[in-house]
Amino acid sequence: MTKILACNLHDYIEVMCLYRYEVQITLNNGHHITGKFDSTGFIGQPTDKQEIIRGKDDNGVDLTLVLTDIKTVTVLTKNAQFNIVHF
Questions:
Q1: Which is it for the CA torsion 33, 46, 12, 18, positive or negative?
Q2: pLDDT tens-digit profile, the chain (87 residues)
Q3: What is the DSSP string of 54-85?
Q4: Which end of the chain, N or C, is less packed with Cβ atoms under 10 Å?
């Protein structure tokens, strides 16, 4: 069965993408990624779809992250609507 992100966390992802906040994302495996994300979507087969976000890192390299792999999102943009979210 496909893991699904809790509904209340989608709001943070949408705001982060809408305003293209610069964020540092900590993944469940401990890796840190800094960048800006601008869209959401799905990858995989219909029986095993995963929700993703797409954006670019600080060097302009394309990023695609699976939402259920995210542990925390820390917003680096000043005056953002939120600072940190724990998934």
A1: positive
A2: 467 788 899 999 999 999 999 999 999 999 999 999 999 999 998 888 899 999 999 999 999 999 999 999 999 999 999 999 999
A3: EEEETTS-EEEEEGGGEEEEEE-STT-S-SEE
A4: N
Is residue 17 helix, strand or coil?
helix
Q: What's the DSSP call for residue 50?
A: E
Write the single-letter amino acid at 85: V
Q: CB within 8 A of 68, min separation 6: which ones?
A: 3, 4, 5, 50, 51, 87
Instruction: Give the type of residue at 45.
Output: Q
Instruction: Give the integer Cα–Cα distance in Å for 42 and 67.
Output: 10
**DSSP label of 3:** -
